[in-house]
Design brief:
single chain, Pnp Oxidase, Chain A, seven-stranded antiparallel beta sheet, three-stranded antiparallel beta sheet
């Protein structure tokens, strides 16, 4: 083995699950931000965590509204997911810009992409500064799933997204 840096390690540990963080904007629209790190924290009580850059508009919306939905996007919107990760929603509607069809879910004003394998509806419990990111810890309120959708994963150090092929 040889010494490498953390971004190089990220390439070696791919694939990683990808999520679209769905938040409510002040105008009532939904913002979508691509996040490549999230995890289950607890199943009793149900809790998850994810990290976002401190400068993230979606992070600001989560801190303001205390609500968020994490979705595992389906492969049909792979290109759009990459676009959502490279643009801000502060002054634009990413769903329209990237052609992502949204649908409502029960009990939330936040919409989610129609092509989602999983949607995890949460309330923000707390967040912590972790270097150049915030770690968001959330209580899970409801979970929805669609087994017909294939989940996206981040590959090559988060430079592309694609389905994970399972070896036979």
């Amino acid at each position: 083995m040889q010494k490498i840096n953390l971004p190089q390690a990220a390439k070696l540990t791919c694939p990683n699950p990808v999520t679209l963080v769905c938040t409510l904007k002040p105008d009532g629209g939904t913002n979508l931000a691509t996040v490549s790190w999230w995890t289950y924290l607890s199943f009793n009580p149900n809790m998850i965590a994810y990290a976002m850059a401190k400068t993230s508009y979606s992070g600001e919306m989560v801190r303001n509204n205390q609500k968020v939905i994490l979705t595992i996007p389906g492969t049909e919107i792979a290109d759009a997911v990459m676009g959502c990760g490279s643009t801000t929603g502060r002054n634009s509607d990413k769903a329209s810009k990237f052609g992502i069809e949204l649908a409502g879910i029960e009990g939330s004003d936040i919409k989610v992409p129609v092509h989602s394998r999983v949607a995890i509806q949460c309330s923000l419990k707390e967040y912590h500064e972790v270097g150049d990111h915030y770690l968001y810890i959330c209580d899970v309120e409801q979970v929805y799933g669609d087994e017909a959708e294939k989940a996206l994963f981040a590959w090559d150090g988060y430079s592309k997204v694609a389905a994970a092929a399972q070896e036979e």
